[in-house]
Amino acid sequence: MVHNYIFVGPQGSGKGTQAKIVAEKFNLCHISTGDLLRNLSGSMKEKVDEYMNSGQLVPDCIVLNILKQKLDSNNCENGFILDGFPRNIGQANELDKIVKIDAMFSIEVSNEEVVRRINGRRFCSKCTTNYNIYVQEIKPKKEGVCDKCGGKLLKRDDDNEEAIKKRLEIYFKDTQPLLRHYNTIRINGEQTIEKVNEDIMKAIKMLGFFR
Ligand code: AMP
User: Could you read off the pLDDT of 71-122 as tens digits, one per residue?
Assistant: First the structure.
């Protein structure tokens, strides 16, 4: 049986962290459109970076193309978790034409907490590991240095105040309406990573993953 899930939540909600953990547990493909876009190269990267760095959504046709390529090239025989896609109803309609989605997990946190967490986000410039200086479980041992490879920790270019505000606005206007489009399970994201994960696992069990 194949299981296809969507994880949504405002930036800083921890949706990426949770998507990764759950995908590993069940051997599902973890597909983050944000990561796919960040890893582009050449002239396409320049175009996409402008949207990303100002907190805007990248045009649907670009994201859809990249996502379709990824789904075609990956053998996701157990299913997948889409992390950060779809972001609006147009993307959801296109997605529904190519795959069946079993459930959407909405990781919910307040605006104040989002701003605090995003300000604390860091990533390793060498091995891309993510950290947060305000979250005990993923705080680097030494400030500015990656625990795993010793690489320098940086802030994402799009984690600036203006872009954060813009992204929150877009999230409530375009992405939140999707909660009515799919079978959605709401998860309280203002708990420890472990507890949030526990709640997601309980919900997956109830969805019949273990049957
Ligand atoms: P994320 O890593 O999910 O926080 O995404 C970072 C940025 O990538 C977003 O602010 C958008 O600019 C872009 N992005 C990621 N996913 C999508 C999507 N499904 N549609 C449009 N833009 C996206």
Answer: 988 888 899 999 999 999 999 999 999 999 999 999 999 988 998 888 899 9
Q: What are phi and psi of 184, to 5 degrees?
A: -110, 135
Tokens read off for 146: 């990656």
Tell me which of 15, 70, 117, 122 is the catalytic residue. Answer: 15
Ligand 1 near 58 CB (within 6 A): yes
Residue ranges with strand state E in 89-155: 103-108, 121-124, 130-132, 153-154
pTM metric for this prediction: 0.86
- Residue 185, SS3 per DSSP: strand
HSE-CB for 157 with a 13 A CA cutoff: 11
Please, are residues 114 and 12 in contact by the beta-carbon 8 Å criterion? yes
SS3 assignment, position 54 = coil
State how far the Cα of 38 lies from the Cα of 15, in Å rounded to an integer.
17
The token pair at 77 is 């025989």
